[in-house]
């Protein structure tokens, strides 16, 4: 199984069963909680003011519950109706919206004191249709520009996400910068394959006397206190061979070869060999 | 769970709909009252962000007229209590919100407004 975001669009992947499964899983709850606390830490809100936050991709309200506990008021948006339904059942305090973040927000300028988003941005990196407004750069651009205006000056937005390559980080940060954000990427536990977490820390404003500094990522050895540090379904991606490449799939059988050839022909690739009775046959050992 | 707190921040985000797109008008609403914790500091901090006239008008639409037409200079306890009630305790459960400019209607069901746009409306 590959990454969730490659299997189906979020509103379909997180259908009724997956939404319940995801929310009930104590492992997920623990990870989500850890990451939410870390995101709040990076958000660095003034301690004595009750802030109004935006939870982007709030899902079933796992992170929202923590915001409730910490005494923040919040509004959450998510695209998966089933997840929001679970959030309603769990009676979180925030206001929920069914919204596609790639379509942009309609919030008035300066509405929020900060924004957090746990495990969401990677979902914006796949195009679902060929319409120009559904290309990832367009959606990211729309998302970041409308988010930038919805945030108060100065404030921060912290996104935890699972990039599958450095190019993706590059794409996201460059679009965020064009939208007017400052800041950058913070990587926690960069030397651990499993516990490694990528946070995008974005700033609105913050110029003038007090320049905002990108916080340091957590480093050193992962504290072994019996807690889970990674999502299992993500860890599957990490199976690599000793050269650091992902293990390639072996040629399986004749059907597989025929299917591949058919695919290449459909794509218009030239010089695809003809199919014959010899296709996919083993050579004799005497050859 | 649309409360006036977030409703007061919400404008229409349809493509090209940039003026007169606030506040969204409530239609056919069912409301529910739920008590919430009173937090005076939060209200005081939030006050500068509010569009007062829009808030009073929308509160009137929902049948609450406890707020004064002009935003008062002095914040006394009674005013804050009323503001708390209007902002945080009135939940719109069913109905819809319509943009005064482009007439796009955002349906609310189960307390969750559907903000999804059709392909041609995306900016």
TrEMBL record, chain A:
Q: Which CDD domains match?
A: AdoMet_MTases (cd02440)
Say which domain of life the source belongs to. Answer: Eukaryota
The UniProt entry, under SUPFAM superfamilies, shows: S-adenosyl-L-methionine-dependent methyltransferases
Q: Which residue stretches belong to region Disordered?
A: 266-287
User: Coiled coil: which residue ranges?
Assistant: none
Share an example GO biological-process annotation for this protein. Answer: rRNA (guanine-N7)-methylation
Where does this chain mainly localize?
Answer: cytoplasm
User: Signal peptide span per the entry?
Assistant: none
> Which InterPro entries does the entry mention?
Bud23-like, Bud23_C, Methyltransf_11, SAM-dependent_MTases_sf
Q: Where in the cell is it found?
A: Cytoplasm; Nucleus
Per its record, what are the GO molecular function terms?
rRNA (guanine) methyltransferase activity
Domain 18S rRNA (guanine(1575)-N(7))-methyltransferase Bud23 C-terminal, first and last residues per copy:
205-285
Amino acid composition bias (Basic and acidic residues), ranges on this chain:
269-278
Q: Methyltransferase type domain: which residues?
A: 54-127
Tell me which UniProt keywords the record has, alphabetically: Cytoplasm, Methyltransferase, Nucleus, S-adenosyl-L-methionine, Transferase
So where does this one cross the membrane? none
Q: Name one GO cellular component term.
A: cytoplasm
Q: Does the keyword Transferase apply?
A: yes
Q: Which family does it belong to?
A: Belongs to the class I-like SAM-binding methyltransferase superfamily. BUD23/WBSCR22 family.
Q: What name is this protein filed under?
A: Williams-beuren syndrome critical region protein 22
Q: From which source organism is this entry?
A: Lentinula edodes
TrEMBL record, chain B:
Cite the GO molecular-function annotations of the record.
protein heterodimerization activity
Question: What SUPFAM superfamilies does the entry give?
Answer: Trm112p-like (SSF158997)
Q: Name one Pfam family in it.
A: Trm112p
GO biological process per UniProt: rRNA (guanine-N7)-methylation; tRNA methylation
According to the record's subunit comment, the protein's assembly and interactions are: Interacts with TRM9.
Belongs to which family?
Answer: Belongs to the TRM112 family.
* Name of the protein this chain belongs to: Trm112p-domain-containing protein
Q: Please name the source species.
A: Lentinula edodes
């Amino acid at each position: 199984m590959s990454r969730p975001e490659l299997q189906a669009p979020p509103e379909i992947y997180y259908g009724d069963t997956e939404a319940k499964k995801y929310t009930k899983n104590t492992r997920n709850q623990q990870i989500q909680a850890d990451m939410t606390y870390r995101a709040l830490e990076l958000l660095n809100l003034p301690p004595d003011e009750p802030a109004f936050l935006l939870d982007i991709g709030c899902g079933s309200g796992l992170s929202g519950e923590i915001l409730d506990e910490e005494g923040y008021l919040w509004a959450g948006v998510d695209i998966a109706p089933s997840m929001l339904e679970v959030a309603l059942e769990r009676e979180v305090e925030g206001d929920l919206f069914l919204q596609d973040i790639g379509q942009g927000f309609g919030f008035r300028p300066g509405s929020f004191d900060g924004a957090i988003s746990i495990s969401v941005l990677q979902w914006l990196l796949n195009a679902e249709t060929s319409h120009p407004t559904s290309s990832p750069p367009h959606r990211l651009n729309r998302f970041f520009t409308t988010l930038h205006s919805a945030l108060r000056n100065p404030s921060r937005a912290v996104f935890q996400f699972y990039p599958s390559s450095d190019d993706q980080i590059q794409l996201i940060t460059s679009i965020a910068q064009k939208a007017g954000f400052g800041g950058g990427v913070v990587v926690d536990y960069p030397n651990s394959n499993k516990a490694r977490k990528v946070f995008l820390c974005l700033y609105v404003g913050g110029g003038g006397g007090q320049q905002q500094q990108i916080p340091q990522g957590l480093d050193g050895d992962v504290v072994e206190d019996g807690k889970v540090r990674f999502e299992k379904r993500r860890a599957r991606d990490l199976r690599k061979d000793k050269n650091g490449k992902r293990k390639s799939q072996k040629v399986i059988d004749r059907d597989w070869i025929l299917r591949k050839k058919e695919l290449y022909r459909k794509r218009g690739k030239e010089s695809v060999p003809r199919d014959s009775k010899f296709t996919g046959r083993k050579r004799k050992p005497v050859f | 769970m649309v409360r006036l707190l977030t409703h007061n921040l919400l404008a229409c985000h349809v493509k090209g709909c940039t003026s007169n797109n606030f506040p969204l008008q409530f239609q056919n609403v069912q409301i529910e009252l739920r008590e919430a914790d009173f937090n005076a500091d939060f209200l005081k901090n939030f006050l500068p962000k509010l569009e007062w006239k829009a808030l009073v008008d929308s509160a009137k639409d929902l049948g609450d007229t406890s707020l004064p037409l002009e935003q008062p200079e002095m914040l006394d306890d009674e005013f804050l209590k009323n503001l708390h009630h209007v902002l945080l305790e009135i939940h719109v459960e069913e109905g819809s919100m319509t943009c005064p400019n482009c007439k796009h209607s955002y349906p609310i069901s189960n307390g969750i407004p559907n903000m999804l746009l059709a392909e041609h409306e995306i900016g």
